[in-house]
Amino acid sequence: MALGNRGRGRWEQIQDSLRNNEQGHVLQFFEQLGEEERLELLQQVEKVDYVALRREVLRLWRPSGAGFIFKPASCTQLASTPAEKEHWRRAEELGRTAIASGHVAVITVAGGQATRLGFDHSKGMFPITPVKGKSLFQLFAEKIHAWERRCGRDIFWLILSSPTNHRETCDFFSKNGNFGLRQVHIFPQGVLPSLDRDGRLILEKKNAVAMHPDGHGGLLEALGRSGLLPMLRENGVEHLSYFQVDNPLAMPIDPAFIGFHIQQQSQFSSRCVVKKYAAEKVGVFVESDGRLRVVEYMDLSAECSCAQDASGRLRFGWANVAIHLFSLDFLEPFCHDCGWQVLPFHLSQKKIPYLNGAGHLVRPVEANGFKLERFIFDLLPRAERALLLEGRREEMFSPVKNAAGLDSVETSQRDQVRQFAEWLSKGRVDLSRDDSGLPPFFLEISPLFADTMEEFLQKWAEMPIKPAVGANFYLE
């Protein structure tokens, strides 16, 4: 496709703008490009507000202002007294009613690649269960399908992909028949350009600047663009249950959480767990100006991280595990008319491949630039009514982020096995376990059999002949 006279005039304007805003280096290989490649570069740059993004990079990289003042967040804690247990029971009953009525849909953020795990595919495709090696996507599909069988109705599952893995994710679900689900809807998030320390665009090819997904806060713009919101409305959905794909212990459908959310007419609700230790690298919930917020761990001073209350608990110890509930009435306005722009940008240093002056691709060994992202939890202060609900880490949080060490495949699989072993022990199975509760072999219980200990104990007790439990035990 030739640029044509009109296209050339438009290009001249963009060229002038690039040079006037310290982005002229983007044009350094322009004369070497064919017409198609020039048009590709033109169309890509035209969509980028590089002036505003450069301003954001310089502001965040060279901050001049002070942060906001905050105090420990209020949290509805786990039940310990009979009255509290009854309160939780009533909340769970309310949540079950809402689920059975079709008022709850599930949304999963799954835009990441599993390259850090040595798996060059969408992270949701990564095999994670300890015996069968089911993918994260299959595991969550089974958890959702279990609720569909209980309710006798379909549950809408929305999956946020990225431009990098959207096609592969769609193909994976198609190949596997959506794992038995009928309402799977996959839609891609947007992208933003990567920039160097001076806020300049980074060329990754002679005709393309480096781009990256716009963060889980990009869910808002992507959801508005997807056209899925009217479909949810038409089908009576009132609440969206949100989690991230890298946490195999996450419960896509959590009736107690949903019940508390509805009871308190919350617009934005979050689950939290107690931090393992003061320096754990997790964001924490705080309160500022009467609103809930999340402060990232790198923004929390050492003094605040280690501060304790009179009982010896961390004052800022409610860890964000990226499990949320949104009222659709609250969320929807932020999905249209640039409403997502209320979310601030966050800056992260990255190693970004770039073209050098000779046109050769360089893969840096140290961070050489930035990625700007928006985070969904920054919507919390916009909620007039918000809820923070405690959960047990061993039941809901064991992310898969690293190939080894903390939050790795090994630690997550062990946590899954530890959970299943606890269920079996409560079911009076004689199972040797070490001091951490881990048995000497792997075992697995499918969500299609049970996805909570209470359901497992009921079904296990009803089995007239119980299978022997040994190495690679699997129950479905």
Descriptive terms for the model:
single chain; 3 domains; three-stranded antiparallel beta sheet; 476 residues; 32% helix; Spore Coat Polysaccharide Biosynthesis Protein SpsA, Chain A; alpha/beta; disordered N terminus; seven-stranded mixed beta sheet
Tell me about this structure:
The protein is of the alpha/beta class and about 475 residues long. It folds into three domains: about 1-45, no CATH class; about 50-400, Spore Coat Polysaccharide Biosynthesis Protein SpsA, Chain A, CATH 3.90.550; about 410-475, no CATH class. It is built from 14 helices and 21 strands. The chain has helices spanning about 5-20, 35-45, 50-60, 80-100, 135-150, 165-175, 220-225, 230-235, 255-265, 300-305, 330, 395, 410-425, 455-460; strands at about 70, 105-110, 155-160, 185-190, 190-195, 195, 205, 210, 210-215, 240-245, 270-275, 285-290, 290-295, 320-325, 345-350, 355, 360, 370-375, 385-390, 445, 475. The strands form seven sheets. Strands 4-3-2-10-14-11-19 form a seven-stranded mixed sheet, sandwiched between helices. A three-stranded antiparallel sheet has the order 1-12-13, with no helix packed on it. Helix 4 packs across helix 9. The chain is globular, with a radius of gyration of 24 Å. Residues about 1-5 have low confidence and may be disordered.
